[in-house]
Outer membrane transport energization protein ExbB
Amino acid sequence: MLLFQEAQELVEEMPEEKTLSIYNLIMDGGVGGQVIIAILFVLLAVALYIYFERFFAIKDASKVDVNFMDQIRDHVTNGRLDSAKSLCETTKSPTSRLIGKGISRIGKPLEDINTAIENAGKLEVYQLERNVSVLATIAGAAPMIGFLGTVIGMIVAIHEIANSGGQIDIKMLSDGLYTAMTTTVGGLIVGIIAYIAYNHLVVRTDKVVYQMEAKSVEFLDLLNEPV
C-alpha cells in the first residue's frame, strides 16, 4: 500500500507534457502577431497564384509544332508569304509571332528584319516574365516580415516581464518566445516557397527564350539562303 501511494505521488509530480498547437500560438500571439501571420498568408496565396498562372502560361508558350519551321520554309521559298503569315497567326505562340513579324518585313534589308524580330522578342519575354518579379519580392520580404513579428513578440514579452515587478515567470516568457518564433517560421516557409517558385519559372522562361532565339536564327538563315 505504501509503495502504491509513493508511485501515485510520483505520477502526480511529473510535469504535464505541453503540446504545441499552431492555431493556439497564433491566437495567443496578440494582435501584432496575428496581423503578421495574416500578411504572410496573403503573400503565400499571391505567390502560389502567380506561380501556377505563369507556369501554365509558359508551358503553353513552349509548345511549338516540330514541323512549323519546315512549313514556313516551304511557304517562303515558294513565295507564299500570305500562307506563311496565316500559319503564324493560327499557331499562336511566341515563336510564331516572332517569325510572323519577320515575314511581314520580307523585302526590306536583312538588318531591319533582324531588328524587328529582336524588338518583338523583347515584348514576348516581357509577357513571359510578367509578375514573376513579384515572386522574388515575396521571397525576400516574407522572412523580414516574419522577423518583424519576432521582434514585436519579444518586445511584448519583455514588456510583460517588466510590468510584473521584475519577477521572471518562465511560463510567460516561454509562451512569448513560442509566439515570437511562430512568425519567423511562417516568414521563412513563405519565403522558401516563393524562392523555389521564382527560380523554377526563371528556368522554364529561359528555355522558351532559347527556343525563340533558335527559331529566329533559323528563319534569318532561311532568308540568307541563295535563291
Summary: The chain has one domain: 27-224. The mean pLDDT is 79. The longest helix spans residues 170-224.
